[in-house]
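Example (one chain per record):
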Amino acid sequence: MNVLFLALKSLWYRRLATGLTVVAIALSVALFVGVGKTREATRDAFSGAVSRVDLIVGPRTGNLSLLLYSVFHVGYPSHNVSMKAVNHVKANEQVAWVVPFSLGDGYRGFPVVGTTAEFFTHYKFRDGQSIQFSEGRVFTTDHEAVIGSEVARTRGLKIGDNVVLSHGHTEDGDGFEKHDEHPFTVVGVTNFTGTPIDRSLYVSLEGLGAIHEVSTEPEGSVTTASGKKDVHTNDHAHEHDAEHDEEHHDQGHESGHDHSSEHSSFATRDGKILVNYVSGFFVGAKSRMSSLELQRSINTWEGEALLAIMPGVAMAELWKNLAIFEAALAIVSALVVLAGMIGLFVSLLILSSQRQHEMIVLRAVGAGPSTIFTLLAGEAVAIVLSAIMLGVGVMYLGLLALSPWLERKFAIDLQLSGVNVGDIQFAALLLVVGAIVGVISSLRAYRTAMHDGLTTKF
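Predicted structure:
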């Protein structure tokens, strides 16, 4: 206890150098632990963006592409899915519900999703949580819209305000073509979810079709939001519609914007909007066990080239592709900690070279090797322990300060869950390394003290 007390007194005597060393190590600890916490929160935010959706179905592109544009609204589909395909899947006896969606329009930098009112009933996030409204309700007409909490906050919107959508997205958020003749009235604002829902605006499929209304009525199978279907058996006409749809997509791609809501996706009959194509649809199976069989039947359907993915599997594939970036962050953080420990070692070596007289006095009063080792190793452990406590405190204060901004900007909900097993293991490893650094420096100090004490100086 006397040796440890002496170590603390020694550190206090050199408090400036000690304090700088503690701060350097604390910052590296805060960075290492903070990066780990942020990485876990990011993974949870992505994984929790969709829940209780058994399959996501879209055009045959790629698993990650379909996941990104359907859930995270990143990118656009290469082409559309016909309502004939939607109705085919919906008729499957293994399917409990189907919710189509259409993308391509925006509102001042935020994506617009055309869908049905059932979206707010069946779409879940974070272990089955339902979408709730902070105020208002679900849209019921073609001229009503529901907005996410972030859209309402950043754009200052409230119930009863009118919004004008634009086709496509640009950096300034104005889109390529504004639909001023078809404004929408905000009737609902969702609660904060920490998912892309917060940054989206939702309208009905017919409402989206109203702003792209065309006067001609293409032949084929078309479906309204109410589920009524008008089937024409002219297969050649249906193929023509698909070719026409792809042609419009190519033109839209060349002009710098997407095609998921082009004119060929909608038509009118007797003044009513008919939906012909959508960007994709979410599927809920009656039984989780039947999801694989249902996925296989959709992917092998000869009526149309479809791709059905399981969100969980696609999410795992996404994180597998991002593993290299996670590893890079971990390596950078570890190198920062290593630099802090090297700084500690250098600091102790410099201090030991300046403490030769102290070591000689200790040797003269009978201090043995164990005493000197304990003194210097105790100083190193005290420095590392103080740095760990300071670093963890700084990290939590930083996360607490950045959490609201990260939630608004990136939909990352940083949960301050406290110290976990990994944090304890990391702290224990640092303490061991600190003790080893102290022992190495004490060996050098002891040998130098022995040499200086036995050398006759003139």
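Caption: The longest helix spans residues 369-410.
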